[in-house]
Write a structure and sequence with these properties.
Elements (H helix, E strand, L loop, with lengths): L1 E7 L3 H12 L6 E7 L6 H11 L3 E5 L5 H12 L4 E4 L5 E2 L3 H7 L7 E10 L5 H13 L2 H4 L5 E2 L1 H10 L12 E4 L2 H5 L10 H13 L1 E13 L4 H8 L1 H18 L4 H8 L7 H18 L2 H17 L10 H31 L2 E2 L2 E2 L1
Parallel strand pairs: 1-2, 1-4, 2-3, 6-9
Antiparallel strand pairs: 4-8, 5-9, 6-8, 7-9, 10-11
């Protein structure tokens, strides 16, 4: 029924604990697939020990390093289950995770999501911890769609249109995915660094919605050596700017995101993702040019490489300048209105009753 897929790369530090929680599931019909992407630490040795002791555990090692997205896809290829349960090497599952998630299944809804807990290691920077806690409180499914066990695809499409870069689902450890979606929606986009899972899960939920379990059945571990933290430290420009451009490109041009484009155009102020791309490319170019030295040249080169992969990023769509002016004027009007409201309220507070009369 379920393949618990654990893609690994230099994950020996936490892998034993991860595997123990996978093996402790109360649901009995599952296998565990560990696919190692040419680790240089003792990850393979740890996994081999478990594979020797537990028939459920199967260990594979790639012939060459496939990278994050490639290794996730390799896990799916090797898995035999009807459902794919990703579990990252740093993360943990509660013992009833599979049972409770499967209990919420609906016909033609191939994505199930659970609320996840956060476990911060002692080496986690304080600003990183605060970011995760704020994001969990304000931008996850529990706060966006309160008391809902099913999120309609139309509602989810609106959310993606309005906040295309904000992952409201969580990491793959918090998901259960029906295998058939990989045939319909393809696999993970290897050009992303951090938004890989968000973009893929958004493809599914924009068409089918998702089932949601409001229990902490999985734990996402945050530490300085995690993939997301490593990528941020290597190049914040690559993560914050270029990943955003790829996401906007897919929303603007990929056929699979047609529901999101329709939702974007139904808004009071319609969103044209092509205009957003033109704005973001200009912003990214200015930012890259402000970075000095070798890092600046590397940043400019990364932007150029991405445009060669996605040449439409270099286009200026017809109507862009008019739309940019209209948006700027709307922001000015909004700011003036807010300022006027502030002056009015300040004046009201200055008028206080005195001796039964107003001054």
């Amino acid at each position: 029924m379920v393949s618990i897929c654990i893609p690994t790369y230099n994950g020996a530090r936490f892998l034993s604990e991860c595997l123990d929680t996978a093996l402790a599931q109360t649901w009995s019909d599952f296998e565990i697939i560990v696919v190692d992407d040419r680790s240089t630490d003792s990850t393979v040795e740890v996994a081999a020990t478990y594979a020797a002791r537990h028939p459920r555990v199967k260990l594979y090692q790639n012939d060459q390093n496939l990278g994050l997205a490639g290794n996730w896809t390799q896990c799916v290829r090797l898995a035999r289950g009807q459902w794919i349960k990703f579990l990252f090497q740093d993360d943990l599952l509660g013992p009833t995770c599979l049972a409770q998630m499967l209990a919420t299944r609906r016909h033609d809804v191939p994505l199930i999501v659970t609320r996840r807990a956060l476990a911060f290691e002692s080496d986690t920077p304080n600003d990183t911890r605060r970011w995760y806690e704020r994001h969990a409180a304000e931008h996850m499914l529990r706060s966006l769609f309160p008391r809902r066990s099913f999120v309609e695809p139309t509602d989810f499409a609106v959310r993606v249109a309005e906040q295309p870069r904000v992952n409201c689902i969580g990491e793959p450890t918090a998901t259960l995915i029906e295998r058939s979606v990989f045939d319909r929606f393809g696999t993970f986009n290897p050009h992303f660094k951090v938004l890989t899972d968000w973009e893929f899960l958004a493809r599914i939920a924009a068409h089918h919605g998702l089932c949601y379990v409001d229990d902490e059945l999985a734990t996402f571990r945050v530490h300085s050596g995690s993939t997301s933290q490593t990528e941020h430290s290597r190049s914040s420009f690559r993560v914050l700017n270029l990943d955003a451009l790829i996401m906007l490109h897919e929303l603007a041009y990929s056929a699979v995101f047609e529901p999101v484009r329709k939702a974007a155009m139904r808004r009071r102020y319609p969103i044209d993702f092509r205009f957003d791309i033109a704005h973001e490319v200009r912003s990214a170019r200015r930012k890259a040019k402000r970075i000095s030295g070798q890092l600046g040249r590397q940043t400019v080169g990364e932007l150029g490489d991405l445009i060669r992969v996605y040449p439409r990023l270099a286009e200026t769509p017809r109507g862009y300048l008019a739309a940019a002016v209209s948006t700027a004027l709307r922001h000015v009007r909004w700011n003036l209105t807010r300022r006027a409201e502030g002056i009015f309220l300040k004046g009201r507070r200055a008028i206080r009753p005195l001796g039964g009369r107003h001054t």
